[in-house]
Protein backbone atom coordinates (compact mmCIF):
# COMPACT_ATOMS: atom_id res chain seq x y z
CA UNK A 1 0.00 0.00 0.00
CA UNK A 2 1.73 3.13 -1.17
CA UNK A 3 -0.23 5.45 1.11
CA UNK A 4 0.77 3.34 4.14
CA UNK A 5 4.38 4.39 3.57
CA UNK A 6 3.38 8.03 4.01
CA UNK A 7 2.02 7.37 7.42
CA UNK A 8 4.15 8.24 10.37
CA UNK A 9 6.35 5.39 11.42
CA UNK A 10 4.80 2.94 8.97
CA UNK A 11 6.75 0.11 7.43
CA UNK A 12 9.53 -2.10 8.67
CA UNK A 13 12.14 0.53 7.79
CA UNK A 14 11.07 2.94 10.53
CA UNK A 15 13.80 4.08 12.91
CA UNK A 16 14.60 1.49 15.61
CA UNK A 17 11.83 -0.75 14.38
CA UNK A 18 9.32 1.79 15.70
CA UNK A 19 7.26 1.32 12.59
CA UNK A 20 7.00 -2.36 13.45
CA UNK A 21 5.95 -1.56 17.00
CA UNK A 22 3.03 0.49 15.70
CA UNK A 23 2.17 -2.08 13.04
CA UNK A 24 2.19 -4.87 15.65
CA UNK A 25 -0.22 -2.77 17.70
CA UNK A 26 -2.50 -2.29 14.70
CA UNK A 27 -2.32 -6.01 14.03
CA UNK A 28 -3.20 -6.78 17.63
CA UNK A 29 -6.18 -4.46 17.35
CA UNK A 30 -7.27 -6.01 14.05
CA UNK A 31 -6.97 -2.67 12.30
CA UNK A 32 -4.53 -3.55 9.54
CA UNK A 33 -5.93 -3.75 6.02
CA UNK A 34 -6.07 -7.44 4.96
CA UNK A 35 -3.05 -7.31 2.65
CA UNK A 36 -0.90 -5.68 5.33
CA UNK A 37 -2.17 -8.14 7.92
CA UNK A 38 -1.12 -11.02 5.67
CA UNK A 39 2.32 -9.49 5.16
CA UNK A 40 2.72 -9.02 8.90
CA UNK A 41 1.60 -12.62 9.59
CA UNK A 42 4.14 -14.06 7.19
CA UNK A 43 6.95 -11.80 8.45
CA UNK A 44 6.14 -12.87 11.99
CA UNK A 45 6.88 -16.50 11.19
CA UNK A 46 10.47 -15.56 10.39
CA UNK A 47 11.02 -12.73 12.86
CA UNK A 48 10.77 -13.54 16.57
CA UNK A 49 11.07 -9.83 17.37
CA UNK A 50 7.69 -9.26 15.77
CA UNK A 51 6.21 -12.07 17.87
CA UNK A 52 7.50 -10.28 20.94
CA UNK A 53 5.98 -6.99 19.83
CA UNK A 54 2.64 -8.65 19.24
CA UNK A 55 2.85 -10.36 22.63
CA UNK A 56 3.60 -6.98 24.20
CA UNK A 57 0.40 -5.49 22.81
CA UNK A 58 -1.79 -8.51 23.40
CA UNK A 59 -0.74 -8.63 27.05
CA UNK A 60 -1.41 -4.93 27.61
CA UNK A 61 -4.68 -4.79 25.71
CA UNK A 62 -5.89 -7.90 27.54
CA UNK A 63 -5.62 -5.82 30.72
CA UNK A 64 -8.28 -3.53 29.24
CA UNK A 65 -10.56 -6.50 28.72
CA UNK A 66 -9.89 -7.84 32.20
CA UNK A 67 -10.67 -4.48 33.71
CA UNK A 68 -13.49 -3.13 31.61
CA UNK A 69 -15.42 -6.08 30.27
CA UNK A 70 -17.95 -7.59 32.64
CA UNK A 71 -18.18 -11.37 32.57
CA UNK A 72 -21.47 -12.60 31.13
CA UNK A 73 -22.58 -16.12 31.93
CA UNK A 74 -23.25 -17.96 28.67
CA UNK A 75 -26.24 -20.32 28.47
CA UNK A 76 -25.54 -23.95 29.42
CA UNK A 77 -26.33 -25.07 25.90
CA UNK A 78 -23.00 -23.64 24.72
CA UNK A 79 -21.06 -25.98 27.00
CA UNK A 80 -23.03 -28.96 25.73
CA UNK A 81 -22.54 -27.97 22.10
CA UNK A 82 -18.79 -27.61 22.57
CA UNK A 83 -18.69 -31.01 24.20
CA UNK A 84 -20.68 -32.52 21.35
CA UNK A 85 -18.49 -30.90 18.70
CA UNK A 86 -15.23 -31.98 20.27
CA UNK A 87 -15.95 -35.33 21.82
CA UNK A 88 -18.96 -36.93 20.25
CA UNK A 89 -17.21 -37.12 16.91
CA UNK A 90 -14.03 -38.18 18.68
CA UNK A 91 -11.03 -36.27 17.35
CA UNK A 92 -8.11 -38.35 16.12
CA UNK A 93 -5.80 -37.20 18.90
CA UNK A 94 -7.74 -39.04 21.62
CA UNK A 95 -8.06 -42.22 19.60
CA UNK A 96 -4.33 -42.25 18.97
CA UNK A 97 -3.66 -41.66 22.66
CA UNK A 98 -5.90 -44.56 23.55
CA UNK A 99 -4.14 -47.05 21.29
CA UNK A 100 -0.86 -46.08 22.84
CA UNK A 101 -2.14 -47.17 26.25
CA UNK A 102 -4.13 -50.19 25.17
CA UNK A 103 -1.51 -52.84 25.87
CA UNK A 104 -1.32 -52.44 29.62
CA UNK A 105 -5.02 -52.24 30.25
CA UNK A 106 -6.70 -55.00 28.35
CA UNK A 107 -5.53 -57.50 30.96
CA UNK A 108 -7.52 -56.01 33.83
CA UNK A 109 -10.68 -55.87 31.81
CA UNK A 110 -10.22 -59.42 30.58
CA UNK A 111 -9.73 -60.56 34.14
CA UNK A 112 -13.21 -59.33 34.92
CA UNK A 113 -14.62 -61.54 32.19
CA UNK A 114 -15.04 -59.00 29.43
CA UNK A 115 -12.81 -57.60 26.72
CA UNK A 116 -13.08 -54.08 25.51
CA UNK A 117 -11.75 -52.39 22.41
CA UNK A 118 -11.68 -48.82 21.22
CA UNK A 119 -14.04 -48.14 18.37
CA UNK A 120 -12.93 -46.06 15.43
CA UNK A 121 -15.73 -43.73 14.35
CA UNK A 122 -16.17 -45.64 11.09
CA UNK A 123 -17.53 -48.58 13.09
CA UNK A 124 -20.24 -46.59 14.79
CA UNK A 125 -22.65 -46.98 11.95
CA UNK A 126 -23.14 -50.67 12.54
CA UNK A 127 -24.12 -50.29 16.18
CA UNK A 128 -27.75 -50.57 17.08
CA UNK A 129 -28.40 -49.99 20.74
CA UNK A 130 -31.36 -51.43 22.60
CA UNK A 131 -30.66 -50.06 26.07
CA UNK A 132 -28.77 -47.11 27.42
CA UNK A 133 -27.84 -45.80 30.86
CA UNK A 134 -26.52 -42.30 31.45
CA UNK A 135 -24.63 -42.09 34.70
CA UNK A 136 -24.15 -38.52 35.96
CA UNK A 137 -24.60 -35.32 34.01
CA UNK A 138 -22.37 -32.68 32.46
CA UNK A 139 -22.23 -31.14 35.95
CA UNK A 140 -21.05 -34.19 37.91
CA UNK A 141 -17.43 -35.36 38.28
CA UNK A 142 -18.31 -38.70 36.68
CA UNK A 143 -20.36 -38.72 33.50
CA UNK A 144 -20.50 -41.99 31.58
CA UNK A 145 -23.00 -43.33 29.08
CA UNK A 146 -23.28 -47.10 28.60
CA UNK A 147 -25.29 -48.40 25.65
CA UNK A 148 -26.04 -52.05 25.00
CA UNK A 149 -26.24 -53.65 21.56
CA UNK A 150 -28.08 -56.95 21.91
CA UNK A 151 -27.15 -58.29 18.47
CA UNK A 152 -23.43 -58.14 19.16
CA UNK A 153 -23.66 -58.54 22.95
CA UNK A 154 -21.55 -55.42 23.19
CA UNK A 155 -21.71 -52.64 25.73
CA UNK A 156 -20.40 -49.34 24.34
CA UNK A 157 -19.02 -47.15 27.10
CA UNK A 158 -18.66 -43.42 26.48
CA UNK A 159 -16.49 -41.76 29.02
CA UNK A 160 -17.65 -38.16 28.89
CA UNK A 161 -16.05 -37.14 32.18
CA UNK A 162 -14.13 -39.20 34.71
CA UNK A 163 -10.81 -38.52 36.33
CA UNK A 164 -9.85 -41.18 38.87
CA UNK A 165 -6.36 -39.74 39.31
CA UNK A 166 -3.32 -41.95 39.93
CA UNK A 167 -4.42 -43.41 43.31
CA UNK A 168 -7.61 -45.30 42.45
CA UNK A 169 -9.42 -47.13 39.66
CA UNK A 170 -13.04 -46.75 38.59
CA UNK A 171 -14.91 -50.03 38.20
CA UNK A 172 -18.18 -50.57 36.38
CA UNK A 173 -20.98 -52.81 37.65
CA UNK A 174 -24.32 -54.07 36.48
CA UNK A 175 -26.95 -54.93 39.07
CA UNK A 176 -29.97 -56.91 38.01
CA UNK A 177 -32.87 -56.67 40.46
CA UNK A 178 -31.88 -57.97 43.88
CA UNK A 179 -28.86 -59.84 42.51
CA UNK A 180 -25.33 -59.08 43.59
CA UNK A 181 -23.46 -56.55 41.42
CA UNK A 182 -21.53 -58.11 38.54
CA UNK A 183 -18.28 -56.44 37.53
CA UNK A 184 -17.97 -55.09 34.00
CA UNK A 185 -14.28 -54.39 34.56
CA UNK A 186 -12.51 -51.10 34.91
CA UNK A 187 -13.78 -47.99 33.21
CA UNK A 188 -11.84 -47.92 29.92
CA UNK A 189 -9.53 -44.89 29.59
CA UNK A 190 -10.68 -44.27 26.02
CA UNK A 191 -13.39 -41.71 25.30
CA UNK A 192 -15.40 -44.55 23.85
CA UNK A 193 -14.83 -48.27 24.05
CA UNK A 194 -16.72 -51.44 23.18
CA UNK A 195 -17.00 -54.05 25.89
CA UNK A 196 -17.46 -57.54 24.44
CA UNK A 197 -19.48 -59.27 27.12
CA UNK A 198 -19.36 -62.93 28.11
CA UNK A 199 -22.36 -64.82 26.71
CA UNK A 200 -24.05 -65.19 30.10
CA UNK A 201 -24.00 -61.46 30.76
CA UNK A 202 -26.18 -59.02 28.95
CA UNK A 203 -29.51 -60.85 28.80
CA UNK A 204 -30.75 -58.98 31.81
CA UNK A 205 -29.78 -55.41 30.94
CA UNK A 206 -33.32 -54.10 30.61
CA UNK A 207 -34.22 -52.24 33.79
CA UNK A 208 -31.00 -53.23 35.53
CA UNK A 209 -28.71 -50.73 37.20
CA UNK A 210 -25.38 -49.49 35.92
CA UNK A 211 -23.00 -48.29 38.62
CA UNK A 212 -19.42 -47.06 38.97
CA UNK A 213 -17.43 -47.40 42.17
CA UNK A 214 -14.07 -46.18 43.33
CA UNK A 215 -11.70 -49.10 43.90
CA UNK A 216 -8.03 -49.77 44.58
CA UNK A 217 -5.79 -49.65 41.52
CA UNK A 218 -6.66 -52.61 39.31
CA UNK A 219 -10.17 -52.99 40.67
CA UNK A 220 -11.98 -54.58 43.58
CA UNK A 221 -10.17 -57.59 45.07
CA UNK A 222 -13.36 -59.10 46.48
CA UNK A 223 -15.53 -59.29 43.37
CA UNK A 224 -17.98 -56.84 44.92
CA UNK A 225 -17.85 -53.05 45.11
CA UNK A 226 -15.72 -51.96 48.08
CA UNK A 227 -15.38 -48.19 47.67
CA UNK A 228 -17.62 -45.20 47.22
CA UNK A 229 -20.36 -45.54 44.60
CA UNK A 230 -19.79 -42.61 42.24
CA UNK A 231 -23.09 -42.88 40.45
CA UNK A 232 -25.83 -45.20 39.30
CA UNK A 233 -28.21 -45.19 36.36
CA UNK A 234 -30.93 -47.48 35.04
CA UNK A 235 -30.69 -49.13 31.65
CA UNK A 236 -33.67 -47.75 29.77
CA UNK A 237 -35.01 -49.12 26.53
CA UNK A 238 -34.26 -46.87 23.56
CA UNK B 1 -14.97 -18.92 42.03
CA UNK B 2 -11.70 -17.12 41.68
CA UNK B 3 -8.85 -18.98 40.09
CA UNK B 4 -5.26 -17.92 40.33
CA UNK B 5 -3.02 -17.51 37.34
CA UNK B 6 -1.34 -20.78 38.31
CA UNK B 7 -4.70 -22.59 38.41
CA UNK B 8 -5.55 -21.46 34.89
CA UNK B 9 -2.08 -22.38 33.63
CA UNK B 10 -2.43 -25.86 35.11
CA UNK B 11 -5.85 -26.32 33.52
CA UNK B 12 -4.50 -25.28 30.12
CA UNK B 13 -1.55 -27.67 30.54
CA UNK B 14 -3.88 -30.56 31.38
CA UNK B 15 -6.16 -29.63 28.49
CA UNK B 16 -3.14 -29.87 26.20
CA UNK B 17 -2.80 -33.51 27.32
CA UNK B 18 -6.37 -34.24 26.31
CA UNK B 19 -7.82 -34.04 29.83
CA UNK B 20 -11.50 -33.31 29.31
CA UNK B 21 -12.28 -32.74 32.95
CA UNK B 22 -9.63 -30.02 33.06
CA UNK B 23 -11.03 -28.54 29.87
CA UNK B 24 -14.47 -28.46 31.50
CA UNK B 25 -13.04 -26.69 34.53
CA UNK B 26 -11.22 -24.24 32.28
CA UNK B 27 -14.51 -23.53 30.54
CA UNK B 28 -16.31 -23.03 33.84
CA UNK B 29 -13.59 -20.70 35.10
CA UNK B 30 -13.16 -18.54 32.00
CA UNK B 31 -16.20 -18.78 29.70
CA UNK B 32 -18.08 -15.87 31.29
CA UNK B 33 -15.15 -13.52 30.71
CA UNK B 34 -14.57 -14.72 27.16
CA UNK B 35 -18.29 -14.54 26.43
CA UNK B 36 -18.24 -10.95 27.69
CA UNK B 37 -15.38 -10.16 25.30
CA UNK B 38 -17.16 -11.75 22.32
CA UNK B 39 -20.49 -10.13 23.19
CA UNK B 40 -18.95 -6.68 23.49
CA UNK B 41 -17.50 -6.97 19.98
CA UNK B 42 -20.29 -8.85 18.22
CA UNK B 43 -23.21 -7.09 20.00
CA UNK B 44 -25.50 -10.05 19.38
CA UNK B 45 -26.08 -12.89 21.84
CA UNK B 46 -26.69 -15.63 19.29
CA UNK B 47 -23.62 -14.73 17.26
CA UNK B 48 -21.54 -14.44 20.43
CA UNK B 49 -22.72 -17.87 21.60
CA UNK B 50 -21.64 -19.42 18.30
CA UNK B 51 -18.34 -17.57 18.57
CA UNK B 52 -17.82 -18.89 22.11
CA UNK B 53 -18.19 -22.45 20.83
CA UNK B 54 -15.55 -21.81 18.18
CA UNK B 55 -13.30 -20.11 20.72
CA UNK B 56 -13.27 -23.11 23.05
CA UNK B 57 -12.78 -25.51 20.15
CA UNK B 58 -9.69 -23.42 19.32
CA UNK B 59 -8.57 -23.51 22.94
CA UNK B 60 -8.89 -27.32 23.03
CA UNK B 61 -6.83 -27.72 19.86
CA UNK B 62 -4.36 -24.96 20.63
CA UNK B 63 -3.73 -25.61 24.32
CA UNK B 64 -0.39 -27.29 23.58
CA UNK B 65 0.88 -24.02 22.12
CA UNK B 66 0.54 -22.23 25.43
CA UNK B 67 3.80 -22.00 27.37
CA UNK B 68 3.49 -21.49 31.11
CA UNK B 69 5.65 -18.77 32.60
CA UNK B 70 5.38 -16.50 29.58
CA UNK B 71 2.30 -14.50 28.79
CA UNK B 72 -0.48 -14.60 31.34
CA UNK B 73 -2.94 -17.39 30.62
CA UNK B 74 -5.92 -15.01 30.73
CA UNK B 75 -4.36 -12.67 28.19
CA UNK B 76 -3.70 -15.67 25.93
CA UNK B 77 -7.32 -16.81 26.23
CA UNK B 78 -8.63 -13.27 25.78
CA UNK B 79 -6.48 -12.83 22.65
CA UNK B 80 -7.95 -16.03 21.16
CA UNK B 81 -11.47 -14.91 22.03
CA UNK B 82 -11.04 -11.38 20.80
CA UNK B 83 -9.31 -12.36 17.55
CA UNK B 84 -12.02 -14.82 16.74
CA UNK B 85 -14.75 -12.28 17.47
CA UNK B 86 -12.94 -9.69 15.33
CA UNK B 87 -12.60 -12.21 12.50
CA UNK B 88 -16.33 -12.83 12.62
CA UNK B 89 -17.11 -9.13 12.81
CA UNK B 90 -14.89 -8.35 9.83
CA UNK B 91 -16.49 -11.10 7.80
CA UNK B 92 -19.91 -9.62 8.52
CA UNK B 93 -18.60 -6.18 7.65
CA UNK B 94 -17.19 -7.61 4.40
CA UNK B 95 -20.76 -7.74 3.14
CA UNK B 96 -20.83 -4.00 3.79
CA UNK B 97 -17.57 -3.25 2.00
CA UNK B 98 -14.88 -3.79 4.63
CA UNK B 99 -12.49 -6.44 3.37
CA UNK B 100 -12.24 -9.58 5.52
CA UNK B 101 -9.02 -10.85 6.98
CA UNK B 102 -7.49 -13.91 5.39
CA UNK B 103 -8.81 -17.30 6.35
CA UNK B 104 -6.23 -17.89 9.02
CA UNK B 105 -7.42 -14.74 10.69
CA UNK B 106 -5.34 -13.00 13.27
CA UNK B 107 -2.58 -14.93 14.92
CA UNK B 108 -2.11 -15.03 18.63
CA UNK B 109 1.45 -14.30 19.71
CA UNK B 110 3.51 -17.22 20.90
CA UNK B 111 3.57 -17.20 24.64
CA UNK B 112 7.18 -18.07 25.30
CA UNK B 113 8.87 -15.45 27.41
CA UNK B 114 10.75 -12.92 25.37
CA UNK B 115 12.39 -9.58 26.01
CA UNK B 116 9.07 -7.75 25.67
CA UNK B 117 6.69 -10.54 26.58
CA UNK B 118 7.68 -10.87 30.19
CA UNK B 119 5.01 -11.77 32.67
CA UNK B 120 3.00 -8.72 33.53
CA UNK B 121 3.02 -7.62 37.12
CA UNK B 122 -0.21 -6.67 38.81
CA UNK B 123 0.86 -3.03 38.82
CA UNK B 124 0.72 -2.98 35.02
CA UNK B 125 -2.99 -2.40 35.08
CA UNK B 126 -2.82 0.98 36.73
CA UNK B 127 0.21 1.74 34.61
CA UNK B 128 -1.77 1.11 31.44
CA UNK B 129 -4.52 3.37 32.75
CA UNK B 130 -1.94 6.04 33.53
CA UNK B 131 -0.38 5.81 30.07
CA UNK B 132 -3.74 5.92 28.31
CA UNK B 133 -4.56 8.99 30.38
CA UNK B 134 -1.42 10.69 29.04
CA UNK B 135 -2.88 10.54 25.52
CA UNK B 136 -5.33 13.21 24.39
CA UNK B 137 -8.79 12.02 25.38
CA UNK B 138 -10.08 11.36 21.85
CA UNK B 139 -6.94 9.34 21.00
CA UNK B 140 -7.23 7.08 24.01
CA UNK B 141 -10.96 6.67 23.26
CA UNK B 142 -9.98 5.53 19.75
CA UNK B 143 -7.56 2.92 21.11
CA UNK B 144 -10.18 1.65 23.55
CA UNK B 145 -12.86 1.57 20.85
CA UNK B 146 -10.60 -0.35 18.49
CA UNK B 147 -9.76 -2.90 21.16
CA UNK B 148 -12.97 -3.29 23.15
CA UNK B 149 -15.54 -2.80 20.39
CA UNK B 150 -13.52 -3.81 17.34
CA UNK B 151 -13.99 -0.41 15.71
CA UNK B 152 -12.34 -0.14 12.29
CA UNK B 153 -10.42 2.86 10.99
CA UNK B 154 -13.50 3.64 8.92
CA UNK B 155 -15.72 3.77 12.00
CA UNK B 156 -13.15 5.71 14.02
CA UNK B 157 -12.57 8.22 11.21
CA UNK B 158 -16.28 8.89 10.87
CA UNK B 159 -16.74 9.23 14.60
CA UNK B 160 -13.90 11.69 14.93
CA UNK B 161 -14.72 13.50 11.69
CA UNK B 162 -11.27 13.09 10.11
CA UNK B 163 -10.05 11.42 6.90
CA UNK B 164 -9.18 7.73 7.23
CA UNK B 165 -5.46 8.25 6.71
CA UNK B 166 -5.40 10.94 9.36
CA UNK B 167 -7.11 8.60 11.74
CA UNK B 168 -4.52 5.95 11.03
CA UNK B 169 -1.67 8.37 11.57
CA UNK B 170 -3.21 9.43 14.89
CA UNK B 171 -3.64 5.92 16.05
CA UNK B 172 -0.14 4.76 15.09
CA UNK B 173 1.33 7.76 16.89
CA UNK B 174 -0.81 7.03 19.91
CA UNK B 175 0.39 3.43 19.96
CA UNK B 176 4.02 4.50 19.89
CA UNK B 177 3.44 7.02 22.69
CA UNK B 178 1.67 4.37 24.66
CA UNK B 179 4.54 1.95 24.16
CA UNK B 180 7.11 4.57 25.18
CA UNK B 181 5.14 5.27 28.33
CA UNK B 182 4.66 1.59 29.17
CA UNK B 183 8.33 0.73 28.74
CA UNK B 184 9.63 3.84 30.45
Automatic annotation (TrEMBL), chain A:
Please give the start and end residues of each transmembrane region. 98-119
Which portions of the sequence form the region Disordered? 1-22
**Superkingdom to which the source organism belongs:** Bacteria
Keywords in alphabetical order, please.
Membrane, Transmembrane, Transmembrane helix
Q: Which InterPro entries match?
A: Anti-sigma-K/W_factor, RskA_C
Entry keyword Membrane: yes
Enumerate the spans annotated as Anti-sigma K factor RskA C-terminal domain. Answer: 121-229
Q: Write one Pfam family the protein is assigned to.
A: RskA_C
Name of this chain's protein: Anti-sigma factor
* Source organism: Tropicimonas omnivorans
UniProtKB/TrEMBL annotation, chain B:
InterPro entries the UniProt entry points to = RNA_pol_sigma-70-like, RNA_pol_sigma-70_dom, RNA_pol_sigma70_r2, RNA_pol_sigma70_r4_t2, RNA_pol_sigma_r2, RNA_pol_sigma_r3/r4-like, WH-like_DNA-bd_sf
Q: Where in this chain does the record put each RNA polymerase sigma factor 70 region 4 type domain?
A: 127-178
The record's listing under Pfam families reads: Sigma70_r2, Sigma70_r4_2
Q: Which family does it belong to?
A: Belongs to the sigma-70 factor family. ECF subfamily.
Q: Does the keyword Transcription regulation apply?
A: yes
Q: Which UniProt keywords apply?
A: Sigma factor, Transcription, Transcription regulation
Q: What is this protein called?
A: Sigma-70 family RNA polymerase sigma factor
Residue span(s) of domain RNA polymerase sigma-70 region: 26-93
Q: Does the keyword Transcription regulation apply?
A: yes
Amino acid sequence: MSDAADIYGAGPGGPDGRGDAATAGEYALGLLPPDEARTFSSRMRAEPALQSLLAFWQERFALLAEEEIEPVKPPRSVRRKIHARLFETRPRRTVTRFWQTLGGLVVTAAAAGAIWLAVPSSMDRGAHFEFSAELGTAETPVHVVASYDEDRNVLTVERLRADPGPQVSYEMWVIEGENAPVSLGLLPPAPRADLFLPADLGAGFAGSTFAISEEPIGGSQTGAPTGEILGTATFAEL
Amino acid sequence: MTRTREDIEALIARTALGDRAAFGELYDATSAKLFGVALRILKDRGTAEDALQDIFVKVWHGADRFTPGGASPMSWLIAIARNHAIDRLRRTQAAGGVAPLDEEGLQVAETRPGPEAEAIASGERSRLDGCLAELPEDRSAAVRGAYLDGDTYQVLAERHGVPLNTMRTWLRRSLLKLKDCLTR
